[in-house]
Amino acid sequence: MRIFDPHIHMSSRTTDDYAAMAEVGVRAIVEPAFWLGQPRTSAGSFLDYFDALVGWEPFRAAQFGIRHHCAIALNPKEANDPRCREVLPELPRYLAKDRVVAVGEVGDDSMTQEEDGVFAHQLELARGHELPVLVHTPHRDKETGTKRTLAVVRESGIAPERVIVDHLNELTVDMVAESGCWMAFSIYPDTKMDEPRMVAILRRHGLDRMLVNSAADWGRSDPLKTHATGRAMLTAGFTDDDVDQLLWRNPVAFFGQSGRLDLADDAVLPATFAGNTILRGPRPDGEAAG
Ligand SMILES: [Zn+2]
Questions:
Q1: What DSSP letter does each residue of 120-136 carry, written as one string?
Q2: Ligand 1 centre from 145 Cα, in Å?
Q3: pLDDT band for position 163 (50/70/90)?
Q4: Confidence class of residue 265 from pLDDT cuts 50, 70 and 90?
Q5: Which letter does DSSP use for residue 40 in this model?
Q6: Around 138, how many Cα atoms within 13 Å sit in the side-chain half-sphere?
Q7: Ligand 1 centre and the CA of 287: distance in Å?
Q8: pLDDT at 139
Q9: Alpha-carbon torsion (37, 251, 51, 103), positive or negative
């Protein structure tokens, strides 16, 4: 099984997670920018984080043979804090970078006017930079939130095939299917969407414009949920080719719209990063890898 996880926050995960992901077939990921758990108090805190997403995290992932890409944005939660909104003028220089394959995650969280304004502004940035967009939908009052999300997307004039609407469930999938946007589902260990419910949705809706992710982050989550969904599909009678479409070809097709996906087997990162040597085993001098 080859797997592309289109939404996972690796900055909050360990190297053990990278190793386990590589083991089950995860070969490429997109890490959307989000919050740090602890609220940020200045724009500078975003810039260090964005630098880590375009530099340090791809280096960490490469040690496990995983291609790391990211999406850059001011996340919905922090759009409500005027100190955080000061990062907005800094976004364009990150959106020009090689490994940035989308604007995200953007959208509504508590559905405030501030969130809507920042969301609309970032959809405009996506159009200007010709990048696709990853949109988060609220976990509370999801139907109202998703309706509102689709209204903001429509008003922006961005092409729906360049938009992912994420964290969907049985109640919100139909309206997103009708909108022409891509439909994404986050599979969680014990809340919200799980594998059997996902398989039932795929049976009803088919595989076109469908994406599955682990959305693994600081909370209770599981970076192997993409693989678990693939296994559940096979058990339910889907073919290997169906699984490949959902877990690999669909995310490649969507993020390929950025023109920046790096999936060539021979494309490797430089051998050194910030003074560190990429270590694939014990160092020649016998010292342990640090
Ligand atoms: Zn997320």
A1: HHHHHHHHHTT--EEEE
A2: 16
A3: very high
A4: low
A5: P
A6: 19
A7: 37
A8: 83
A9: negative
Give, in order, the Cα–Cα distances in Å from 61 to each of 2, 54, 141, 208, 220: 16, 11, 35, 29, 21
Q: Output the CA 133–ligand 1 centroid distance in Å.
A: 13
Is residue 276 predicted with pLDDT exceeding 90?
A: no
Q: How far is the CA of 281 from the centre of ligand 1 (A)?
A: 32
Residue 26 has pLDDT above 90, yes or no: yes
Q: Which residues of 59-84 are buried (b: 16+ CB within 10 A; e: fewer)?
A: bbbbbbebbbbbbbbbbbbbbbeeeb
Give residue 276 CA to ligand 1 midpoint distance, Å.
Answer: 29
How close is the Cα of 129 to the center of ligand 1, in Å? 22
Neighbours of 218 (CB within 10 A): 14
CA of 7 from ligand 1 middle (Å) equals 6
How is residue 43 written in tokens?
Answer: 């724009």
**Which residue has 């289109």 as its token pair?**
6
CA of 6 to the centre of ligand 1 (A): 10
Using pLDDT thresholds of 50, 70 and 90, give the confidence band for residue 262: confident
Report the pLDDT value the prediction gives residue 264, as an integer from 0 to 100: 77
